[in-house]
Amino acid sequence: MTVAVEKPEKTAGVEQPAPAKGAFKISRSMVVAAILVVWLVLFAVLRGKQTLSLAAADLTDLHRWFNDVNDSIGADRNSNPLFLYFFNEIRLVIDSLVTFVQELISQPGADRPVPQIGWLGVVGIAGYVSWAVGNWRVALLAVAGFTFLGLQGLWQESMDTLALTVSAVFVALLFAIPLGVWAGLSDRFNRIMTPFLDFMQTMPTFVYLAPLTLFFLIGPASATIATLIYAAPPAIRITAHAIRSVPTTTVEAADSLGATRRQTLMKVLLPMSKRTVVMGVNQTIMAALAMVTIAALIDAPGLGKTVVQALQSLDVGTAFNAGLAIVVMAIVLDRVTTAASVREEAARRSKNRFQTWRRPLLGAGAALTVVLIYLSHTYLWAAEFPGEGGIGSAISSGADSVTTWAQDNLSGLTNAIRDAITNGLLNPFQTLLTDSPWWLVGAALIALAVVLGGWRAGITTAVCVGLLVATGVWSDSMTTLASTVVATVLVMLLGIGFGVWMGRSALVDRLLRPTLDAAQVMPPFVYLVPFLALFGATRFTAIVAAVVYAAPVAMKIIADGVRNVPATTVEAATSAGCNTWQIITKVQLPMARSALTLATNQGLIYVLAMVVVGGLVGAGALGYDVVAGFSQGQLYGKGLAAGLAIVLLGVMFDRITQAAARRTST
Q1: Nearest-5° angle of CA 385, CA 387, CA 392?
Q2: How remote is the C-alpha of 534 from its chain's centroid?
Q3: Is the pLDDT of residue 13 over 70?
Q4: Alpha carbon distance 370, 368 (integer Å)
Q5: What is the pLDDT of residue 351?
Q6: Is-contact 422 631, C-beta < 8 A?
Q7: Three-state DSSP class for residue 7
Q8: What angle do helix axes 524-535 and 593-613 make, rounded to 10 degrees?
């Protein structure tokens, strides 16, 4: 009997010959199953050998070398020319910017017991700017949101978070917009930038912290630099996309009229891409807010520090109150920038008389805002938020009460869910990864990468496996890998279930999509709080939080993929007598394979970021190593190596799933 490997039906438009009679096909799924069977057999024989396990307090030569580098940099920081004239100068500039913004809205100045602009002025500015760039509804939301932050008793912490976010976004956009325009105009520069942007967006937020503290120390400056580096890629990408999306006929018309390159850019390209560029600013602000909260691990002030301290002490009430403040700020900033991107188009459609009076009203609003700023600068009652934060105390107390009730009444259910998934899925898979010889796991990962993504993905995986071994945290990497894969499986189950439902029903899509959009606005920290209350400080808490964090993006991608299946194909299947289940499993899901693969890619990246953050609530492994590296000087080198391992896992996941997505779309 002959064997024929399964191939696509067409290659470059040429029909492939049918397999010979008596032949059978070997599909990718069969090869994957064979790899897993061989792995399991060898695991049974070689279990516990060459696992490269390392105790929590043990260090490798690489970790000690990282510690020595850190010590030598600390000793030479004020004498080495590279630090004196480059890194220290950058830190000084960023630190001066952050200090200026903090003294403006959050921290007392050198000669004042309160900031230059008090709470009344900040609320007035927020309302006026929101109205000017958006509409009166968004302005009311901004005023209500900022006032609520004060009522929670978190005004100064909120303003510290806002100050760091504004500083980081300001510097990020100074570089990102010009780079995005350049990438939009130049194919060569776009090709150069794309791998760097892919790499930066693949890296979880944790990873940016350790290397930056090596050069910029711990504090607001390092936090701001980490934030602006993390937040810049979306603005660069979206700006480049906006420039490239301007119709070529419009550009050609400008050229034919004798416009110079600069005139074409300033009068045609930028005005026509303004709405999309503002969307890029929106994404940059959201990324910056997420990063600023996590940067509390390197002593960034603000709401993130409150959440971290509360999580470490298992104070659910305080963590929930601060987490709610982060969510409120994120929603306000998101709504304001989203409204700014659509305001001009809405104004053009609107023909009411209010538009005629908009300029005079904006002038009056500006005058009122100046008065509020003056009052908040001059009078203590307008500078310090009144009250003792009674609403915040009530929220914290309520969260503690709900936590106690849930632990008393739902512990049977939550423990059953936790134990079922932990014992039935997580523990066996983690044992397979951590108790197999390292070379066996590496060989299996490389083989799976080749089968799913091709030879290039296999080579990338081989390099990543080799570097993971070199980091000295192989066992912790495999523990994180196990949690990531298990969480991704759960994400895809939810994604397929709800994504198909949304893709088949416009009503369900309209009902669920706003909730999914709001869920994607929340920073990762916030997801840990409710599940800490339900499941305690365990690795399962991190997995559940990762599932909830990553599921919205998977659902939306799959819903769009199902919706894009041609209606004629579905109608043909229906007329052939297929029932709903058959249409979904035999038509819509197979034709949406590329969307499923893309959802898997995004789900893996989101899950990895969240599982690592879960190191704060008992997830252990690489997340714990990174956090321990910040808090214990002798473990700094191990934390830095763990950060590198997280990057390698992210790159490996990204390359395999992207290559698989390209294969399924051809």
Answers
A1: 95
A2: 24
A3: no
A4: 5
A5: 53
A6: no
A7: coil
A8: 70
CA distance 169 to 618: 32
pLDDT tens per residue across span 86-103: 888 888 899 999 999 999
Report how far residue 329's alpha carbon sits from residue 457's, in angstroms, rounded to the nearest whole number.
Answer: 40
> Rounded to two decimals, what is the model's pTM?
0.79
Q: What's the confidence (pLDDT) of residue 12?
A: 40
Sign of CA dihedral 85, 87, 88, 90: positive
Give the pLDDT confidence of 551-604 residue by residue, as tens digits. 888 898 898 888 888 888 888 888 888 888 888 888 888 888 878 887 888 888
Give one DSSP letter per residue of 561-630, joined into a string.
HHHTS-HHHHHHHHHTT--HHHHIIIIIHHHTHHHHHHHHHHHHHHHHHHHHHGGGGT--HHHHHHHHHH
453 vs 446: CA distance, rounded Å: 10
Answer whether 323's CB lies under 8 Å from 335's CB.
no
CB atoms within 10 A of CB 508: 15
Radius of gyration for the chain, computed over Cα atoms and rounded to the nearest angstrom: 27
Please determine, for residue 58, whether its predicted confidence score (pLDDT) is greater than 60. yes
Which long-range CB contacts under 8 A does 146-150 form with residues at least 24 apart?
146/122, 146/332, 147/123, 148/328, 148/391, 149/325, 149/328, 149/329, 150/119, 150/385, 150/387, 150/389
CA–CA gap between residue 160 and residue 107 (Å, rounded): 8
